């Protein structure tokens, strides 16, 4: 049980996607069950205008509460779903729960947008466009209230095919966003070719914004680029008022992060909105 032994032990239990290790096999079958029986839910994290503090949309973030081990991170189970053919069912589940929630908010008089993350595999799924259209119609949500987030990496797996699919989604009237922008390897040339409405500056550049001048320069450059291309610019990972204020000065449109709210169950959003002060502290101080 020395440090070395513990490290070896941990390695044994870590899920290895490239071998048939037992933990991974168990997770796959448990994930399949959870998808069939409702153990997969959607939490939402609000997004606000930097200038007014108004909450105009949310991002849907998938959550899996495992009956024995507790909550498992999407960073762990989304890649497993991708490699085992479960990603289609996962994406359908998240879209369904997200649009159901959006419809409920609309019925209560709140015209909010919702953003859903797409994985690389979903960008190769010929059924996705019909599926999105079917679910929008079922819940009566206007296409323009749904944003689909893709990463540069997921597009780069097969750019021609992904870009063709993005055009089809765009033709439905759905909004498209490039998530984790700045972490891919082809940012500038591909941004011009992607038929997107929005860029989301990766949290790794945003969270330390006060500390490093390099991050300030990067965020300012991406914000200017987005605005000149006519794109809405969103910053994720905004953890304090000073960062929000800096982003507002730079001309970033929307903020998302712990300073506004942590992700919460979809059913808690309207109560949270009701209890929230009209404007956050950063705006009252301006
Ligand atoms: P993402 O789409 O970039 O989501 C943002 C992540 O940052 C979320 O982690 C969110 O909880 C976290 N976050 C938000 N605000 C803050 C903040 O102020 N500080 C810090 N440190 N973190 C913050 P989460 O929910 O664990 O999701 C991780 C990733 O898993 C997502 O990154 C996304 O790539 C993926 N994911 C989540 N839900 C889905 C889904 O439904 N489908 C697919 N395909 N992927 C998903
Ligand atoms: Mg996202
Ligand atoms: Mg992101
Ligand atoms: Mg991320």
UniProtKB/TrEMBL annotation:
EAL domain location: 24-277
Protein known as: Bifunctional diguanylate cyclase/phosphodiesterase
Organism from which the protein derives: Geodermatophilus arenarius
Higher taxonomy: Bacteria, Bacillati, Actinomycetota, Actinomycetes, Geodermatophilales
């Amino acid at each position: 049980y020395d440090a070395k032994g513990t490290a070896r032990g941990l390695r044994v239990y870590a899920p290895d996607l490239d071998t048939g290790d037992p933990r991974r096999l168990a997770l796959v079958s448990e994930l399949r069950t959870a998808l069939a029986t409702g153990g997969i839910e959607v939490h939402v994290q609000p997004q606000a205008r930097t200038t007014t503090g108004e909450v105009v949309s949310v991002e849907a973030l998938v959550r899996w509460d495992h009956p024995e081990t507790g909550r498992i991170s999407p960073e762990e189970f989304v890649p497993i779903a991708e490699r085992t053919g479960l990603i289609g069912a996962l994406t359908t589940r998240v879209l369904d729960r997200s649009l159901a929630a959006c419809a409920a908010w609309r019925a209560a008089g709140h015209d909010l947008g919702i953003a859903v993350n797409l994985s690389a595999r979903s960008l190769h799924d010929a059924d996705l466009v019909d599926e999105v259209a079917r679910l929008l119609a079922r819940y009566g949500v206007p296409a323009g209230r749904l944003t689909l987030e893709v990463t540069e990496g997921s597009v780069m797996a097969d750019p021609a095919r992904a870009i063709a699919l993005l055009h089809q989604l765009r033709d439905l009237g759905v909004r498209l966003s490039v998530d984790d922008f700045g972490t891919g390897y082809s940012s500038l040339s591909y941004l011009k070719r992607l038929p997107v409405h929005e860029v989301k500056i990766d949290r790794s550049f945003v969270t330390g914004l006060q500390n490093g001048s390099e991050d300030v320069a990067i965020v300012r450059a991406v914000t200017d680029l987005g605005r000149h291309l006519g794109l809405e610019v969103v910053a994720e990972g905004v953890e304090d008022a000073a960062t929000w204020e800096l982003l507002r000065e730079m001309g970033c449109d929307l903020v998302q992060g712990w300073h506004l709210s942590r992700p919460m169950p979809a059913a808690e959003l309207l109560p949270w909105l009701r209890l929230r002060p009209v404007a956050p502290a950063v705006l009252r101080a301006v």
